[in-house]
Design brief:
Elements (H helix, E strand, L loop, with lengths): L4 H7 L6 H23 L3 E7 L3 E7 L4 E5 L3 E2 L2 H9 L7 H12 L3 E6 H11 L4
Parallel strand pairs: 1-5
Antiparallel strand pairs: 1-2, 2-3, 3-4
The structure holds zinc ion.
Amino acid sequence: MILSPYEEKRIGRTTLSQSDIQYFRNRYGKRFIRALRAVEEDKVVQYHFFPSDSITWIVKGSARQYLVIPDTYCTCRSFYQDVVIAGAYKFCYHLLAQSIAEIRNQFTARKSNDAERRILYDKWRRTD
Ligand SMILES: [Zn+2]
């Protein structure tokens, strides 16, 4: 996981205290604020596709939807520029949002079929 067990425990609380928020802000800055807002505004979606029984996570951004592979990858520009190229961070705010959403069990769950999965993947995989 991108967060430590200690951090998972802190972020998992239903109501964050001022000191929780301060802790995460100090550590992750604006990315934390954006990630928390994304979770609270229901921008994190978990698709469950059948019959393959596969799971895909999406975070809705301002312009488009981003495909997030938990703890690993995101299709946004920031992930490419700041994480892969610059090595400035280990994750973008979408990855953080997915992690918070999963820990708190606070996301939209959708079911769909594998035919639609192929269509959606064509859209989500774009990295522009
Ligand atoms: Zn991202």
